[in-house]
From TrEMBL:
CDD domains: TM_PBP2 (cd06261). Keywords: Cell membrane, Membrane, Transmembrane, Transmembrane helix, Transport. PROSITE patterns: ABC_TM1. This is Peptide/nickel transport system permease protein. It is a multi-pass membrane protein.
Length: 288
């Protein structure tokens, strides 16, 4: 087992986040091949069935199996969170590198651009794009990815500048290391803890954004399984069948919590300064 993974598993927050994210990912993969029932199949004779066999979480107003809908909705959640994370990573690293490692005029231009873009809320951008191009999961992915890529750049850029002035980086430059090699070998590994926290936050917000936009009609289409769409369908009956609303809301809440806790755990597991401090704390003093 890699060292960082072993350290992650030893922390309670990291272990919880890793287990939940793994379960959701496996559920999404399994739902590609099997679900207890067809998620879109209606059975009016079993409308509002209480949690029991064979409908373990009950059914909705059209008789659809809620567990099958949640399993199928996990695919959408994983797709959106991973897609938004990839876009945010590419945008964030590109802007941070341009804002820290280039000529002064370009660094200042990128800094002004980041300040302008960060003033626009991610959900507002997604709703504006959806109103023009129509609601889809790709709108959510690109909106959240670009929006939080800017956040990642804003936080990572000063860290890159700080590490760039370190003695070991200056020595690497003197030895003939190119800017790209220095970025890959020295700069990115040292800003990884800060980057990981921001990335996990962007993936968590992507889950919330997809659920919220789908709830409002700007996200997933009605033919796609989505926790946000399921929550929107069931909330109309919360006064009559409150238990049915709990399941999609609980799935969204636990997923967002797990992604945030996993990010915190990864930061602790990969940050060399935290490991060094922990070693100093646990090293007994030598008494002469």
């Amino acid at each position: 087992m890699p060292g960082w993974l072993s350290r992650l598993w030893r922390t309670a927050t990291g272990r919880f986040g890793l287990i939940v994210v793994a379960v959701i990912t496996v559920t999404a993969l399994v739902s590609l091949l099997w679900t207890p029932f067809d998620p879109q199949e209606s059975d009016v004779r079993n409308r509002w069935a209480i949690p029991s066999w064979p409908h373990l979480l009950g059914t909705d107003d059209t008789g659809r199996d809620i567990l099958s809908l949640l399993m199928a909705g996990a695919r959408t959640t994983v797709f959106v969170s991973v897609g938004a994370g990839v876009v945010a990573t590419l945008v964030g690293i590109a802007l941070a590198a341009l804002g820290a490692l280039t000529a002064r005029w370009l660094r200042e231009t990128v800094a002004v651009l980041v300040d302008i873009l960060i003033a626009f809320p991610v959900l507002l951008i997604a709703m504006m794009i959806s109103s023009v191009w129509g609601g889809s999961l790709w709108v959510v992915i690109w909106s959240v990815g670009i929006g939080f890529g800017v956040n990642i750049a804003r936080v990572t850029r000063p860290e890159l500048r700080r590490v760039q002035q370190s003695d070991f980086v200056l020595a690497a430059k003197a030895s003939g290391l190119t800017a790209g090699q220095s970025l890959r070998r020295h700069l990115l590994p040292n800003v990884a803890p800060v980057f990981i926290v921001q990335l996990s936050w962007s993936m968590a917000v992507a889950v919330l954004a997809e659920a919220g936009l789908s709830y409002l009609g700007f996200g997933a289409s009605v033919v796609e399984p989505s926790w946000g769409l399921l929550l929107a369908d069931l909330q109309r009956y919360i006064g009559v069948h409150p238990l049915s609303v709990i399941w999609p809301g609980l799935a969204i809440t636990i997923t967002v919590l797990a992604l945030n806790l996993l990010g915190d755990g990864l930061r602790e597991a990969t940050d060399p300064t935290l490991r060094h401090r922990a070693a100093e704390v646990h090293t007994p003093a030598v008494i002469a």
